[in-house]
Amino acid sequence: MQSPTSSALVVTLPGDKGYAALSMPWNVAFTQAPAAIAAPTSVQEVVEAVRFARENDLTITVQGTGHNVAARSGRPLDQTLLLRTDALKGVEVDAERRRARIMAGALWAEVTEPAAEHGLAPLSGSSPDVGAVGMSLGGGVGWLVRKHGLSSESILAVELVTADGAVVRADAEQNPELFWALRGGGGNFGVVTAIEVQLHPVPELYAGWLVFPAERTAEVFTAWRAWTDTVPEEVTSTVRYLQLPPIPDIPEPMRGARIAVVEAAILASPERGAELIAPIRELGPIMDSFDAMPVSALVALHQDPVGPTPAYGHHRMLADVTPGTIAALMEVAGPDSGSPLLGLELRHLGGRVGRREPGHGALGALDAGFLLFGVGAVMDPALGEAVEARLTQLFEATAAWDAGKVYTNFVERPVDTAAVFDEVTYARLRAVKAQVDPGDVFRANLPIAPAS
Ligand SMILES: Cc1cc2nc3c(=O)[nH]c(=O)nc-3n(C[C@H](O)[C@H](O)[C@H](O)COP(=O)(O)OP(=O)(O)OC[C@H]3O[C@@H](n4cnc5c(N)ncnc54)[C@H](O)[C@@H]3O)c2cc1C
């Protein structure tokens, strides 16, 4: 293999010191064995890494954190350069224009903190250590999604290095077709080195958890579903059934607990927030953490695991959640089901995230009422098999309520990318790919082949 032209860029090969650590994704239930790994520290080094791959006939897979590595499982990387973006750090907040420029290596918590100093919020997700760029390129369903839509739609400009090594900017004026494709089409068009996003003022926030004992799970899911019909777009919420492991990382009294949880972020004063959450609160939770919160606290509300985690997940976008759906969920993954899953979750969609508007990108909106997600920790192979089998059962049991498409970011098993987009959109994405990457150098987790 030829060395990179610059001495600055380090390329790590199998057998080199550091290869094992650099090839490890966030989701450590999966392993990767790329032909080479580069972790550029500047845009110039990204250009050199792309050149290095081309000179050595390697394809390129870009990875921010590896949260989404499951989606590409089964596709070996032995002819691929794994281009890690985690060393491309930096976030600049322009409070006056309510914008942030986010470098490819920034995690969500590194964006939410400086934005919150100005009372502003990006459209971050439920986890502090998911990559801000990776999640935004794939859509992005966060706590403000019903009010402000997908994170991809808050992108104002994208800076990237394309397959020919060019440094390109795509926005509504420059390269508009590429700009459209990147917002949903993800890592198929180049190495995104930075994005500029719109920030949103959050003057008031009332948020928290209402926790119920496991035996009330079906009742809580049913009440939450009815409540979602009544709430305005200022309310984004989830309902979960959690079987938390008895590990020291989880504080008492949650350690080892089996609980049903309604969680919400309400963009309102404590008085109005209390009014809105009252129908769920009246059920009589055993724990109630709802309170006025600073916007900086939102990224930790869901208590997602931080740092390397072994997990299998699976999702389905649901057109609706009916009493029949809840019965099916309880049978496969409820408290009396013997399920090995750690979490069974429904996220409420609708509102702004359901509206496709002029100027939107390739994904634009989610045509579904709810997002179902199941997840299990994979502490050993036997548990992994049990989790996989239960996730498949969960998926099959909810087929009757399928919304007809899959959600990009929640794909945790290899799927045909055509299942994400409608036919016209998918053909348009393939046409953009043919223009900017005709040799199919960039292989995203959800690959888009160039139109022939
Ligand atoms: C614990 C957890 C919580 C989550 N919470 C949410 C949530 O609340 N809302 C939501 O919508 N999703 C959520 N997700 C899903 C998450 O958004 C996806 O896994 C997303 O793809 C992660 O992006 P990443 O860069 O961190 O991951 P990676 O696996 O590194 O990358 C994912 C994809 O993005 C592409 N990509 C990343 N960076 C670049 C770049 N710089 N240039 C070009 N392509 C790039 C990659 O090629 C790859 O195809 C969650 C996932 C987990 C595991």
Mean pLDDT: 96
Q: How many helices does DSSP assign?
A: 11
Number of domains: 3
The CA-CA distance between the termini, in Å, is 30 Å
Please give the number of β-strands.
19
What is the level-2 CATH architecture name of the largest domain?
A: 3-Layer(aba) Sandwich
Order of helices and strands: EHEHEEEEHEHHEEHEEEHEEHEEEHEEHH
The CATH topology annotation of the largest domain reads as Vanillyl-alcohol Oxidase, Chain A, domain 3
Radius of gyration: 22 Å
Helix content: 10-25%
Main sheet overview: 8 strands, antiparallel
**Unreliable stretches:** none
Shape: globular
List the ligand species.
Answer: flavin-adenine dinucleotide
* Structural class label: alpha+beta
Strand content: 15-25%
The level-1 CATH class of the largest domain: Alpha Beta
Task: Kindly describe this structure.
The chain is an alpha+beta fold and 452 residues long. It folds into three domains: 11-84, 2-Layer Sandwich (Uridine Diphospho-n-acetylenolpyruvylglucosamine Reductase, domain 2); 91-201, Uridine Diphospho-n-acetylenolpyruvylglucosamine Reductase, domain 3, CATH 3.30.465; 206-410, Vanillyl-alcohol Oxidase, Chain A, domain 3 (3-Layer(aba) Sandwich). It has helices spanning 19-22, 43-55, 108-116, 132-137, 145-148, 176-185, 217-228, 270-281, 323-333, 381-397, 423-436, and strands at 11-12, 36-38, 59-63, 80-84, 91-94, 99-103, 120-121, 155-161, 167-171, 191-198, 200-201, 206-213, 235-243, 258-266, 287-288, 291-292, 311-318, 343-348, 370-377. Strands 12, 13, 14, 15, 16, 17, 18 and 19 form an eight-stranded antiparallel sheet that branches. The protein has a five-stranded antiparallel sheet with strand order 5-6-10-8-9. A four-stranded mixed sheet has the order 1-2-4-3, with helices on one face. A hairpin with a 4-residue loop joins strand 5 (91-94) and strand 6 (99-103). Helix 7 packs antiparallel against helix 9 (323-333). The longest helix has 17 residues, at 381-397. The chain is globular and about 65 Å long. It starts with 10 loop residues before the first strand and ends in a 16-residue tail after the last helix. The model has no long low-confidence stretch (mean pLDDT 96). The structure holds flavin-adenine dinucleotide. Residues 62-69, 85, 104, 125-127, 130-131, 133-135, 137-142, 186-187, 191-192, 304, 409, 444-445 line the site of flavin-adenine dinucleotide.
